[in-house]
Amino acid sequence: MLPCVYRLQPVLALLSFTLLTQGENCPATCLCPDPHTVDCSGRGLTRLPDEIPLDVRRLLLADNWIPRIPSDFLVLYSDLVYLDLRNNSLSHIEPGTLSTSSRLVFLDLGSNNLTEIPKGTFGESRSLIKLRLGNNPYLSMINEDAFMGLTSLRELELERNALSGLQVSALSQLPSLRVVRLEGNPWVCNCNFANLFTWLVENSHKLPNGIEGMECSLPTDGRHVPLSQLSQDSFRECQITLTLTDFFIIIFSGISVSVAAIMASFFLASTVHCFQRWSKGTKGDEEESEE
User: Where is the LRRNT domain (predicted)?
Assistant: First the structure.
């Protein structure tokens, strides 16, 4: 029996050292089920915990009261691939905060208080595959270049926000996009929505339920209309709608044509006048010759 115990001593010592090391590296209020996972979900945190291991790969911070992420946070945790910040109190993400997350694959910012997603929010996180931004009840603005550089993004969740419109260019910059969720937003069926409607119809296979269940409100009376009842003809009037730039072009063209017409008339009148004088002079010379 004793020889067996002696042979197990190195193994037991290594196991004890590993457990003690994990206990020392794990934040006091969190759990660390494995050496590269820190689970601080539902701990009532009002800020990011201290003493997070630098080699953490999965950081779970859901269901807390965290209001902000320090702009240099991800500089320290370059191995992070999974970040869950769902159901916190985030109102904005400072530009550049996520630009250093070169290995981040999964990011959940759903169920927060975000109001907008400006350009440069995600930098060029080329490894990001899944991005959750749904259930932000105040999120009403997404910059058309907000997702620029996310060349590997396959799943984008924007459901149940406060979006009344969305630039198609924000979605067309995602070459790997396979799934997008947009249902539950207060879309407005105006001319700004026309291009998005065309994109939704052409890419309905990327929507979990197609355009079924999605609706928009009419700008005239606010009545909600299912997108499945609309067609390209519904936005026919938008094709002849002129923008301010169009009006400037029309005005400039009109002025240019008017100036050209005036100059042509002046040149023609001058030519006629000169021709008449030349004709009179020639006729006078002929009469003098006859005399």
Answer: 25-58
